[in-house]
Amino acid sequence: MNSIRLNLLKWLIVPLLIINLVGAGVTYWLAWIPAQTAFDQSLADTGWALVPRLHEHNGEVGIDLSEQAEQVLRVDHLGATYFVVRNHDGKLLAGDADFPPLQYSGSDKAINKPTPYDGVMRSEPMRFVSLKAEVGQQVVFIGVAETLRKRTHIRSEILFSLAMLEILLAAVLTTTIWVAVSRGLWPLQKMQQDLDARNTPPYDDLSPLPEAGVQQELLPVVRAVNGLLGRLQIDAKAQQNFLANVAHQLRTPLAGFRTQLEWLLQKHAQEPETAHSIALMASSTERMIRQTNQLLTLARAEPNKFEKDSLKVVELNKLVEESIQHFVEEADKKDIDIGFNLQTTRVMGEQFLLRDLIDNLIDNAIRYSPSKGTVTVHAIQGKDGGIFSVEDSGPGIAASEQEFIFNRHYRLDDKSAGNGLGLAIVRDITKDHGARITVEPRVGGGTIFSVYFPFAILGAPSKLPGS
Fold it and tell me: Which residue intervals define the domain Histidine kinase in the entry (predicted)?
């Protein structure tokens, strides 16, 4: 997957780690070269310590070096130190007879200038320092050597310390870069979260993303997204207006058609075949009227079109009472026992939309309840506001389907008549009223739909049925 985060981390961390390693190498040499120089200087000082003990007598060079002084020169806790003093003829004056031939750099006239170099003595790597000194008129050759154990020990400590430091710096750099990249990408993640929050039913939030406080680099992206959302919003409004206009234009001719069919049914009541045919047409017309009304309600209940100023104090129980006769007649057709528990329940609402909410919930309960089933309607004043609930004895709704039943055109089965808009309308109306809806299983089988309304605002204008 092509990731901005991974690309940023790759192009930041890898070069910094390489620079860090190069810096570590430079630091190592900057630390080791002075240490090596100090060791060589210490080795040269050992050679210089021999010069004051040399003397010339009758053209011959001698040395005054006691056994205790020689032991002091050879003291080395981590390794071993060797030395040699020879005259200009190569004769051994003091020190180790097996000391290798001395090496010098530059001219042979370079007196009192130490020459450090690497070599081998007694089958062991050594560090040597050779120098020439004048004793009277004679030239004396002095060589000092020591094992590399002390230097190797110090070098190991330098390398270990640098390795630990590099590991720590690499961890700090990686963490710092990771945090910096994450903080830098946070505006993108915030934008993603804002857009993801809209990816929930009813998927109708097309409001523009806020531009205030947006980073300069993201501003073109936000404006492009807002332009797309604006075009979608225009298209959605055009679609809603078209839907509302079509539904509104269909209501009048359909109502007239139903009236004519009722008249024909009365006129031909004595003709069984004609009456049956007219009854079928009347039933189809009734379904068309219901679907048209639902389309009109759906367009009117769209949350982004609803005006909160239209909310007034409504007595929910009286809205139910107005339609009790209709609900009882519909329940009788399926021999369903329908009951009502209605208390004075005041809510802030728009009575036409609330009637549609009530009709759809009770109609669904009757439609999905089996013959000889039960449906109970409640309207009560709870401690937090009004509650309207409908419980049925239908087949129930699986938990896996409860998140989908409020989507448009979603149906639990194809056996019951309907277009799958009823619960979508209920969802939109619930959202318009700042309420929430719950779906719970009923004890003994069936489902309970409950709508919880906020408290009605005291002193708000009333909009009671019949007003």
Answer: 245-457
On the 0-12 / 13-18 / 19+ scale of CB atoms within 10 A, 258 is: middle
Q: 10 Å Cβ neighbour count for 316?
A: 27
For domain 219-298, give the fold: Helix Hairpins (1.10.287)
- Cα–Cα–Cα angle for 24, 26, 31, rounded to 5 degrees: 90
* pLDDT tens column, 308-361: 666 888 999 999 998 888 889 889 989 999 999 999 999 988 888 888 899 889
Closest by CA to 63, choosing from 38, 84, 80, is: 84
Give the span between the Cα atoms of 417 and 211, in whole angstroms.
Answer: 47
What's 309-452's CATH class? alpha beta
**How far does Cα 428 stand from its chain's mean position?**
30
Cis peptide before 303 (omega within 30 of 0): no
- Distance CA(61)–CA(360), nearest Å, equals 125
Q: What is the pTM of this model?
A: 0.47
Give domain limits for the chain: 4-154, 219-298, 309-452
CB 374 within 8 A of CB 356: no
Token pair in block for residue 377 = 């309607």
Task: State the Cα–Cα distance between residues 69 and 302, nearest whole angstrom.
Answer: 106
Give me the DSSP letters along 75-144. Answer: --SSS-EEEEEE-TT--EEEE-TTPPPP---S-TT-TT--EEEEEEETTEEEEEEEEEEEETTEEEEEEE
